[in-house]
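Repro:
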Amino acid sequence: MLFVDSRCHLAESPRWDGGRLHWVDLEAGALWTVTDGAEPHRLDLGRATGFAELRTDGGFITAGPGGVWWIDDHGSPEWTVDLPEDWSVMRVNDGACDPAGRLLCGTTPWDAGSQPGRLHQVEPDGRVTTLLDGIGMSNGLAWNPAGDTMYHVDSLAHEITAYGYDVRTGAVGSPQHTITVDLGIPDGLTVDVEGNLWVAVWGSGRVLRYRPDGEILGHVEVPARYVTSCTFGGSQLYITTARWDLTEADLRTEPAAGGVFRCETTTTGLPLRRFAG
C-alpha cells in the first residue's frame, strides 16, 4: 500500500527510527521525515544528498558534492570532510553505517560507467579510507546479523557481493560469493533478522528476498517500476521509489511513482545503526 505520496524524483535511503521514517530525494537534496499518522515534513538541504544517517550525538551525517556533511536536525552544517573524488564528474550514491558506527559510502560518475566508482569509509573522527575501487556503480550496503559479512551492490554489474568484514577494525576481506540479479538492476537493500537479503530491483517493480547463498525466497510487487531501496520498521517493509525519466503517459499508469510504499512481512529487520558521533 502507498504510505506517503511524496512524488520524489529519486527517493532513496529509507531509515526507521522508533516510529519515525526518513528518506532522501537524492538530486533534489531533500530530507523527508514522517511519523505514522502525521503529515510528512520535507527539509531542503540545498545540495544533492545520497543518504542521511542518524548520529548518536544528534542530527545526521549526509554526503554529496564536496564530501561528507555533519548536519543538525534543521539541515545546518556542523562539519564537513572531503572525499578523494573529482566532484565535477563524480557523485555520492548510497551509504550506510556499519555495526560499530562507521560510515561507508559509495561514489559513482554522473555519466554512469565513464569511470570507476569507489567505496569509502569514514571514521567518527573524520578519517577517510578507500575500501574498494573499480566499481561500476556503488549502491546498496548492508551487514548480516553477526556483522562479519558486508553486502555491497554494484548496480552496473548486476551483482551483490558478500565480503568478510572485521567490525573491530573496519577492514574488508576478500569476496566470499556474489549474487547475480537477472531480473533488473539491483539498488538498495536491507537484511532481516534471519539473515536474508531484501533487494530493491530498479526497473522491475519488485523487491526480491534472497537467502544469503542467492536463492530467491519470494518477492514484493510494487506499483512503480523504479524501486530504489527498502528498510524494516518492525514487521513492516518500507519501500522507496522514483519518478526519474517517467513520461506523463507513464505517470498516468504509475501515479504513485516517487512515493513510499509499505507492506506487512513475516519477519523483522535489524536494529538501526547510527553513526558514532
